[in-house]
Design goal:
Length: about 725
């Protein structure tokens, strides 16, 4: 590209950015020392001189940027040096006014191959990539999104009054970010934009000093599965009849395990065995083909080898079977040959009007009808948590934990290869399903990131989505030509999409289950103020520290609450938060103090430490007393029963207070015997007792509930602002 053409392109780039609200610094282009000095005279000293060219990157590091040049001679020297250092890569010289300001930021956009256009903001200058104090959001952005990006950087001090300079013009930065978002949506040919630095002047004014605009051809859209009619997904979980194609009498084979598991619970529908060799399995006759089954079939569960699966499509079509659960592996997950086989299979299934879950799936489960079409008969209680897992093994573990911990399951499905039904389809179905209150996801990959984001953002406004992502990677998939693209990674963009959509993201499988247990048993806290009720002082201090690290607040007790608790505890209690009940025996006093804390306007949630779990020590004391002859065997059983009943009564009282004050109570057991549950149902109440074995797990779960509650509040505020804006518009 010749100099004149490059100069025209640079001018066009500046005009493009200005048209979208980016305050680009005035600059002039030159091709030698003479024209550079003339440009400097026109702009007015002091000036900045930079070399530019299509291949010139990291210009500061290469000595191609000269600041604060106060006369023509200094410009001449700088340009001569730049021409020597850049050599044949130099295509021109940029001359700009020298702006003063101690704070430098970066803004930009790039196109992620999974999620599409992404906007970035953070600390800029020469340390952008080293420090990486940046945040990302998916376009399109609203003003609220842009404001959250400013709030998201760690160096908040740089945005306020700083070393004699005024706070930055936050509205100006928000306009820039929203402008970049609009540009990204309007101009698919723009691949990347890098604005570094955005300089904040002494008065807080913002100017884009150095910009880079990278164009492309608009990019080819990635091939992704088409959305399905999510209403049809419901039929997979409520089949009146199931045909197991590939049923087997051999123990350990999928064709044996799945029907056995399905018959082991309370499923009342018809079950048919299909095997070309005939015979009987579990006392039932096998049909050579699905077309030989006399009754109607709602769901075909397929376990035959992959190569034979496409041949089933004409048979299923002839029989009128619309739903196909393909357990069989050997498709896309094995490589190109399997991918072609899967593609052809789905194409033919779609033509036949057959909806496919899988292939390569572990199966599904619906406790509401006693159906567990899985290799092992896991039987969680019926409830409101919908679970989808891209790993069948992880899904089974989650279900087993749910059964153990009394977490009610709405339904489970292993999504497998997601050749037709994908995670966004499940989300669309959960959004309208009246029985689903919580969505639990385990994911390892996303085929359509943009649709996943849009579906999740809708669902999160109504129901919490708790997600564990496996296979997180810190490295991007392509080399980028700008700071914006270089800093972005798969993991960072995914995390940004989750935060923006209101998804509650966790990093450990144990945390996923803990957080779901909290959502399933407690009301949502209205804020992040926490009162801590503890059996011992050290435990309370530890918990307060954990709360602070997770962004929760431990407010001091007000005089009125202190006065009310004074009547319940010895005079030497600490009169602070955490509230140490100084090893008070019995469970009546803790309940009275708990109620005082819950009715207190100064807290939004209570963490209750060490009250439950005394039964372990009570059993030992009673056993020792019996051994020493202090009490009889009959008295032993009476005392033991009383100890157990007192804890049951305590849980019932806690749940009653949760119901009364609509505030969550997170318990931590005094001692975990290894078989204690996390959730303790109490009568017919919507809420349940919630007890974790450690303070850390309780605090983490509470912080995730607070995070989700804050997301909902932001959405409500945004909706209100939009309504007010519409009302203010002239008719």
């Amino acid at each position: 590209m010749n100099v004149q053409k490059l100069m025209k392109q640079a001018e066009a780039d500046d005009q493009l950015l200005q048209s979208y609200g980016v305050p680009v610094v005035r600059e002039m282009t030159a091709h030698d020392t003479a024209t550079a000095m003339a440009a400097a005279e026109t702009i007015g000293f002091p000036v900045v001189v930079k070399g530019f060219g299509a291949t010139l990157q990291h210009k500061t590091d290469r000595g191609l940027v000269y600041l604060n040049l106060c006369d023509a001679r200094a410009v001449h020297t700088a340009v001569t040096s730049i021409m020597t250092k850049a050599g044949d890569e130099l295509e021109g010289i940029l001359v700009q006014p020298c702006l003063t300001g101690r704070r430098e930021f970066v803004a930009g956009l790039f196109r992620d191959e999974v999620f599409g256009p992404v906007i970035m903001f953070g600390l800029g200058g020469i340390f952008t990539e080293a420090v990486q104090d940046v945040v990302f959001r998916l376009a399109p952005l609203g003003t609220t999104d842009a404001g959250e990006m400013l709030d998201g950087i760690k160096a908040q001090a740089m945005l306020g009054d700083f070393r004699g300079e005024s706070a930055v013009d936050r509205d100006a930065i928000k306009r820039i970010l929203v402008g970049l978002s609009r540009l990204a949506m309007d101009r698919p040919d723009i691949e990347e934009i890098d604005i570094n630095p955005l300089i904040a002047g002494a008065a807080g004014e913002i100017t884009a000093v150095d910009t880079l605009v990278c164009r492309g051809d608009g990019g080819k859209s990635k091939e992704t599965p088409l959305p399905v009619d999510y209403h049809r997904i419901n039929r997979f979980f409520y089949p009146d009849s199931i045909a197991f194609i590939g049923a087997s009498s051999k123990i350990g084979k999928w064709g044996h395990l799945l029907p056995l598991s399905s018959m082991s619970w309370d499923y009342k529908g018809a079950i048919y065995m299909v095997n070309p060799n005939g015979g009987t399995i579990f006392g039932q006759a096998c049909y050579p083909s699905v077309t030989d089954i006399p009754g109607t079939v709602d769901l075909a569960v397929v376990t035959i080898p992959a190569a034979h699966v496409p041949g089933l499509i004409p048979q299923l079509k002839a029989k009128g079977i619309k739903n196909m659960l393909i357990i069989t592996s050997g498709f896309r997950e094995i490589g190109e040959s399997g991918q072609d086989l899967e593609k052809d299979l789905i194409k033919e299934a779609a033509k036949a009007g057959i909806l496919v879950i899988g292939p390569n799936t572990m199966g599904l489960c619906n406790p509401h009808i006693g159906l567990t079409c899985l290799p092992f008969p896991v039987k969680p209680r019926a409830g409101s948590t919908a679970l989808v897992s891209q790993s069948g093994n992880m899904g089974l573990q989650f279900l087993a934990f749910a059964e153990q911990q009394c977490i009610g399951i709405r339904g489970f499905c292993g999504s497998g290869n997601e050749a037709m039904v994908t995670i966004p389809d499940y989300l669309d179905a959960f959004e309208v399903d009246p029985l689903t209150r919580i969505v639990m996801l385990y994911m390892e990959s996303i085929r359509d990131g943009r649709r996943f984001f849009e579906s999740a953002a809708r669902v999160s406004r109504r129901k919490p989505i708790v997600l564990l992502k496996g296979g997180q990677s810190g490295s991007g998939k392509k080399a980028a030509s700008s700071h914006t693209g270089a800093i972005a990674s798969d993991a960072r963009v995914f995390d940004a999409a989750c935060q923006q959509a209101g998804i509650v993201q966790v990093s450990k499988s144990r945390t996923l289950l803990d957080v779901v247990a909290a959502f399933a048993s407690q009301p949502l806290p209205n804020g992040k103020r926490v009162a801590v009720l503890t059996l011992g002082g050290g435990w309370g201090v530890l918990t307060a520290d954990l709360c602070s690290r997770e962004g929760l607040e431990i407010p001091g007790l007000t005089p009125d609450i202190i006065q009310r608790i004074d009547h319940l505890l010895p005079s030497f209690w600490s009169r602070g938060n955490p509230v140490d009940i100084v090893a008070t025996l019995g469970l009546e006093t803790p309940i009275l103090i708990l109620e005082e804390l819950l009715k207190w306007d100064g807290c939004d949630a209570v963490i209750n430490l060490g009250i439950l779990g005394k039964k372990f020590f009570a059993k030992r004391v009673i056993a020792e007393a019996t051994t020493k002859g202090a009490i009889s065997t009959e008295e032993y059983y009476v005392l033991l029963e009383n100890a157990l009943r007192s804890e049951e009564k305590y849980i019932e009282d806690v749940v009653a207070l949760i119901e009364k004050y609509q505030k969550p109570v997170f318990g931590v057991t005094l001692y975990d015997e290894g078989k204690d549950r996390t959730i303790y149902p109490a009568g017919d109440s919507t809420y349940k007792g919630l007890f974790y074995p450690t303070p850390a797990r309780a605090v983490t779960a509470l912080s995730k509930m607070v995070e989700y509650g804050q997301f909902l509040k932001r959405q409500q505020e945004t909706d209100l602002m939009e309504e007010e804006s519409i009302m203010a518009m002239p008719n």
